[in-house]
Design brief:
This protein has about 130 residues and is mainly alpha-helical. It has one domain. Helix content is about 70%, strand content about 0%. It has 6 helices and no strands. The longest helix has 30 residues. The N and C termini lie close together (about 5 Å).
Length: about 130
């Protein structure tokens, strides 16, 4: 069972990473602004894989602890943590040499929901019992 959950986390992380990189490129072409010092493809891949693997570990333990309603509780906790994580880009103080720092939250905030969206999208393809 843990192996399937691990693969689910990897697949969701890859899917989420690709979505973040595509969104980053769309944002760049729409506003002609880059935040390469803060957000680059390598960091996007690492953060998304990490988030989805941690979600997989959480899913495994929620399944063991909350036998009947673990899926509902896990989805609620994952969504709440995604909402809570948007405080980080709002609280960050950008370096002075960054052009148009007011556009940074528009890039970073939606990306915080991509791991959860990817997890909820990929999960039905894995039969975990």
């Amino acid at each position: 069972m843990f192996k399937k959950i691990f693969y689910l986390g990897i697949c969701a992380g890859i899917f989420s990473s690709v979505a973040c990189i595509v969104y980053d490129r769309i944002y760049f072409f729409a506003f002609e602004i880059e935040f390469k010092k803060l957000i680059n493809p390598g960091s996007l891949i690492a953060v998304n894989l990490f988030a989805c693997l941690v979600a997989g570990i959480g899913y495994y333990f929620f399944k063991k602890w909350f036998k009947r309603s673990f899926e509902k509780i896990f989805n609620l906790v994952f969504t709440l943590l995604s909402f809570a994580s948007i405080l980080a880009p709002l609280a960050i103080s950008l370096p002075l040499d960054i052009k148009n720092p007011e556009l940074f939250p528009g890039l970073a905030l939606p990306m915080h929901f991509f791991p959860a969206i990817a997890w909820f999208t990929v999960k039905p393809f894995f039969r975990i019992e």
